[in-house]
Fold this protein.
Amino acid sequence: MMRVFLDDKPLDQAGASLATAIRAAGDAAERAGRVVIEVKFNGAPVDGPTLDHPPTTPAADTDEVRFVTTDPRALVATSLQDAADLLAGVRQAQRQAAAALHGAKYDDAMAGLSQSVEAWDTVRRVVDGSAALLRLDLSAVRTPDGTPGGTPRPVTESIAALAALLDRLRSALATQDWSALGDVLEFDLDEQAERWDTVLRSLAGFVRSGG
């Protein structure tokens, strides 16, 4: 039977196949209040598609799979802070894309526009994934929204405001309203980036503190 290790500790009777090992490791990690963040089979990282659909064929006695886990709150807090750092870098790209649009240099604007859309999609995936992993009700979690003198508000309200703004961006792009698109990038999304830096870092602090 294949040798299976979870954080360097053997998992007995789990190595019939990679599929059984993944299930056993996931269950053991969950019981310990942890999540699996890395899987190596015979020393090589296991990719996402294989993790999603692991082989059920019997493993060889010489095979070995190792799982590494972490505290889910630490993982989520780090992911949220990384998302905030990502937004700090995308603001300049948004401003440059806006300047290109206002100067009728549409091709020059596309790289910055693409970077902006990808960054905001990442933010949304990180927030949604964090809430799912920790079973957080974001309507009950309040964070500052980055406005001067603003009062904390539910994260779901910040999400809704961002979603509405991204709809405006996509609509302007679809209709080739370059002036409106430039304004969204230069003003609205720049403001959102500043606000979401506060939201993400505050949410990371809330998670890290055990809230």
